[in-house]
Amino acid sequence: MDFFEVVYRRRSVRRYKPEPVPIEDIKKMIEIASLAPSAHNLKPWRFIIVYNREIIKNIVEAVHKSVNAVVSSKNVPKDLAQKYERLRYYFTFYIDAPVIIVICGEKVITPSREAVRLAFPEKSSASPVNSIEQSISAATENLILTATALGYGSCWTTGPLVASDDIKKILNVPDNQDIYAIIPLGKPDKEVTPKKPQKFEEIAQIIK
Ligand SMILES: Cc1cc2nc3c(=O)[nH]c(=O)nc-3n(C[C@H](O)[C@H](O)[C@H](O)COP(=O)(O)O)c2cc1C
């Protein structure tokens, strides 16, 4: 598959064949993820590869528990709670995925963000953008595109991070790291059709 075909064929895949994903393929995904650009070249990404069924089940159970807490919270209006309840599947569908990759990142503040924060202490946030998060997202996109190129289906998920604290405990994530996403992976259970791009005029403007 050439680069463009890979990008067209990358879709969120939530159902997988049970066949295992060899560690060599995961290592290739991580290798290509590590080539992503990163703010100040900090390369803040870290990866936890979970094949263990019991641990995946424990993560899913922790997510169910957190979703229950949100849905039953007296602070969440009923209609919003109902909308959130409908997302439960999207936060937990990977219970039978052959493997999940948990994308972690070091809690670092870029020198430029720190300098701006010190210069303008009255501003609540030095900048609306978080370049560490963006760097980790760049690595994540490289990873899922590599998964597509190798014939796997994957899905970038952040919904499960409602249970981030519990998941960090389950996986022994060190205190100096956060979890940014969970990527379940496997051979797609059915053929993936290429995506249709958005129209240029709808999303871009040219300034001459
Ligand atoms: C930052 C981010 C978070 C996402 N979180 C979830 C999630 O928690 N659960 C899920 O099923 N899909 C999740 N998705 C997948 C999106 O729903 C999906 O990318 C979107 O609907 C477009 O479909 P496509 O990926 O097939 O192009 C997420 C995607 C991104 C980029």
- The tally of strands reads 4
- CATH fold annotation: NADH Oxidase
Bound molecules: flavin mononucleotide
Portion in beta strands:
5-15%
Intertermini distance: 36 Å
Q: Return the structural class.
A: alpha+beta
The CATH C-level class name: Alpha Beta
Structurally, how many domains make up the residues?
A: 1
So how many helices?
A: 9
Give the CATH architecture: 3-Layer(aba) Sandwich
| Mean model confidence by pLDDT | 95
The rough form would be described as globular
CA radius of gyration: 19 Å
CATH superfamily: NADH Oxidase
Share of helix, binned:
40-55%
Order of helices and strands: HHEHHHEHHEHEH
Spatial order of the strands forming the largest sheet: 1-2-4-3
Largest sheet: 4 strands, antiparallel
Q: pLDDT below 50 for ≥5 consecutive residues: which ranges?
A: none
Describe the structure.
By secondary structure, this protein is of the alpha+beta class. It has a single domain (3-188), classed as NADH Oxidase (3-Layer(aba) Sandwich), CATH 3.40.109. The chain contains nine helices and four strands; from the N terminus they run H-H-E-H-H-H-E-H-H-E-H-E-H. The chain has helices at residues 3-9, 23-33, 53-71, 78-86, 88-92, 111-119, 131-149, 164-171, 200-203, and strands at residues 45-50, 99-106, 153-154, 177-186. A four-stranded antiparallel β-sheet has the order 1-2-4-3. The protein is globular, with a radius of gyration of 19 Å. It starts with a helix and ends in a 5-residue tail after the last helix. The mean pLDDT is 95. The structure holds flavin mononucleotide.
